[in-house]
Inverse folding.
């Protein structure tokens, strides 16, 4: 594996790699080509960082060498560390692309990045809340001594986010901690604030953090359906409301406990059928 930013894989542990990952998000800035949309692009980036930070806290990355999995093998924990290092590689690649772009830019091109001062005050405050939630879950001193760099095209951001989210998916599957994740994500949703802010974050978390989107839907609708669903034998799990037909009623339910199925499908929320009435789970 490449040594991103000069980090040696053998010289740092998994906790330090996690800290470096969380810090990497803070080095990204947005070039002028993003226009005013840079504000919501920043929120999307913050959603990805918050998701990774939530995972780290949920598995006890700073105080549990098994990452919450009592039978974890050395191979599994090494793989988790490799995934974190690969996330750092993605950020290092984005820095490299940024430097190449600057070297090839025309003399009169404005390469100055947007800053917090360019953001609407409400969006800036919301992004600060997201950042604080994430950064408060990392510990230790900064390992990377870097200066910020800019992304100059949205395609670069889209690729970075796609690849980072894919790796977060992988590490969550390797070391899942659903109960802790649900507790933390509900705290995240509660911290966001008013309905307008919640709906904005929900839209920017699409494709980035499905758990946060569901937690926000709970806050907005009053319908609590996040829970731990264990599926055995290849069953499928849906954590959402599903409706068919044009008529359905609004039902508010609270769910708790664990559901196990074998080769079936467990649905949390309400499934509405216009011909057969309402089925409440």
């Amino acid at each position: 594996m490449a040594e991103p930013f000069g980090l040696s894989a053998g010289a740092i542990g998994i906790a330090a790699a996690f800290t470096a990952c969380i810090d990497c998000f803070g080095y990204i800035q947005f070039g002028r080509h993003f226009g005013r949309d840079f504000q919501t692009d920043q929120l999307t980036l913050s959603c990805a960082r918050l998701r990774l930070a939530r995972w780290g806290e949920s598995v006890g990355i700073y105080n549990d060498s098994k990452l919450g999995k009592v039978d974890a093998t050395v191979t599994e924990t090494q793989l988790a560390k490799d995934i974190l290092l690969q996330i750092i590689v993605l950020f290092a690649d984005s820095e490299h692309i940024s430097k190449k772009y600057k070297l090839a830019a025309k003399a009169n091109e404005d390469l100055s990045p947007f800053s917090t001062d360019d953001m609407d005050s409400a969006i800036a405050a919301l992004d600060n809340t997201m950042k604080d939630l994430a950064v408060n879950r990392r510990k230790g001193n900064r390992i990377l001594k870097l200066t910020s760099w800019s992304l100059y095209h949205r395609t670069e951001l889209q690729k970075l986010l796609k690849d980072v989210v894919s790796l977060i998916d992988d590490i969550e599957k390797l070391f899942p901690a659903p109960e802790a994740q649900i507790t933390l994500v509900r705290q995240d949703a509660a911290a966001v604030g008013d309905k307008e802010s919640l709906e904005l974050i929900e839209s920017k978390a699409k494709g980035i953090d499905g758990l946060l989107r569901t937690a926000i839907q709970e806050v907005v609708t009053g319908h609590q359906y996040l829970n731990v669903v264990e599926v055995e034998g290849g069953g499928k799990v849906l954590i959402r409301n599903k409706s068919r037909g044009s008529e359905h009623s609004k039902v508010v339910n609270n769910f708790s406990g664990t559901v196990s199925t074998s080769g079936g499908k467990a649905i949390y929320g309400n499934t509405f059928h216009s011909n057969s009435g309402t089925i409440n789970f």
